[in-house]
Amino acid sequence: MTATPLVVLENVDKHFGELHVLRDINLSVNAGEVVVVIGPSGSGKSTLCRTINRLETIDTGRILLDGQPLPAEGRGLAKLRSDVGMVFQSFNLFAHKTVLQNITLGPIKVLGQSKAEANARGMELLERVRIAEQADKYPAQLSGGQQQRVAIARALAMNPKVILFDEPTSALDPEMVQEVLDVMTDLAREGMTMVVVTHEMGFARRAANRVVFMADGQIIEENTPDEFFTNPSSERARDFLSKIL
Ligand code: ADP
Ligand code: MG
């Protein structure tokens, strides 16, 4: 744990036109913490994640990474994108690059690693997500679960300070969900700072330090997983849980 929280959102508001999509969001994430964000569709979970690596701008409020306001442009923004990894529902791998090339591209171009160095580290990461034997294949030759594990390795290759996961298992066939959650659980145990939007309550119970429940652009409740699942304090959360559990 560092003295300063790694990620801080202070009084963050955002609109899409008339739609008030984030309402006075206050959230802080400590180094090594795993925060699971849950809530109904359209509640602003993806937008929240996207503001943290500045894929979306905010109207008012502040977002700090390591105590510093997010850079708006230039090299600072490139650095931010490597410090804040993101894993999406749709794996977003480069179709015409091999698995290993997908992982080494960022480290070579952005971090300035040599090809040999990036390849060595890339293979290590593929071992870590248990997929080293697929290194020379193309994404389309892999299952969805394997592709998502490549996407996780690709995020790790940038040595991020925090990784944001936006419904990483929602697009997967059911039999592939667990292999991805297992990799994420390993990362959590190893101390990676993670913000995870997911409806996988088993993962939340196992891996989360804190659950944040959002509805209508607001954080309605923040709680330990135990408390949240057994004794949610808000009516909205109780109602939501009764529908998904
Ligand atoms: P969630 O991830 O919780 O389902 P989102 O953050 O994706 O919610 O979306 C919150 C609201 O903002 C939704 O009503 C969605 O339709 C709207 N929205 C998301 N992205 C955009 C955009 N780029 N332009 C306009 N509206 C958007
Ligand atoms: Mg979403």
TrEMBL record:
Single GO MF annotation: ATPase-coupled polar amino acid-transporter activity
CDD domains: ABC_HisP_GlnQ
Pfam families per record: ABC_tran
Key words of the record: Amino-acid transport, ATP-binding, Cell membrane, Membrane, Nucleotide-binding, Transport
Organism: Actinorugispora endophytica
SUPFAM superfamilies: P-loop containing nucleoside triphosphate hydrolases
Primary location class: membrane
Key word Aminoacyl-tRNA synthetase present: no
EC number of this enzyme: 7.4.2.1
Catalytic activity: a polar amino acid(out) + ATP + H2O = a polar amino acid(in) + ADP + phosphate + H(+)
Superkingdom field: Bacteria
Keyword Transport: yes
The protein's name in its UniProt record: ABC-type polar-amino-acid transporter
Cross-referenced InterPro entries: AAA+_ATPase, ABC_ATPase_HisP-typ, ABC_transporter-like_ATP-bd, ABC_transporter-like_CS, MetN_ABC_transporter-like, P-loop_NTPase
Gene3D superfamilies, A to Z: P-loop containing nucleotide triphosphate hydrolases (3.40.50.300)
Topology class, membrane: Peripheral membrane protein
Family: Belongs to the ABC transporter superfamily.
GO cellular component: plasma membrane
Domain ABC transporter: from-to ranges: 7-241
Enzyme class, UniProt record, top EC level: translocase
